[in-house]
Structure formats: structure tokens, C-alpha cells
Design a protein that fits this description.
This protein is mainly alpha-helical and 83 residues long. It is built from two helices and no strands.
Length: 83
Amino acid sequence: MTINFMVAVAVWLTTFVIVLVFTVPDVPVTPLLIMSVVVMTVVPLWFYPRSKTFWAATEFLVARSDPEYRSPVRRDPRATDLE
């Protein structure tokens, strides 16, 4: 979630600065507000699966570095009993 928010803020800040650089004397507040709302809702929704994948990979790499780490056991899909 943190990485998701950081990416959204980075995209918003970049867009905000670009709009301000090109329209500094007469800043269009309403389009800027609409752009901010759109960016801060669309980017986190779009980036969420990528953020989840990144954190899963990070967790795997950290857990794998533990000396007591055991790799997952491949189970027979026909097995009916559970451990």
C-alpha cells in the first residue's frame, strides 16, 4: 500500500509541476483540481496489482534469506488428506 501511494503521489506531483510550469501566470484551478482527483484515483487502482507483486517478491526474498527457510513442498493434487 505504501509503494502504491508513493507512486501515485510521484505521478501527481510530476503532473502538477508540469502544469504549473506551463501555466504559471494564470493557473487553471478547476482543471488542475479535476486532474488531481483523476490521477489520485486512477493511478493507485492501476498500480495496485504491480505493487502487490513487488511486495510478494520482496517478502519471498527476505524469507528465503532466513536460515530456517524451507522451500514449499509440492503436493499431489489428488491427495485428500491435509496436514
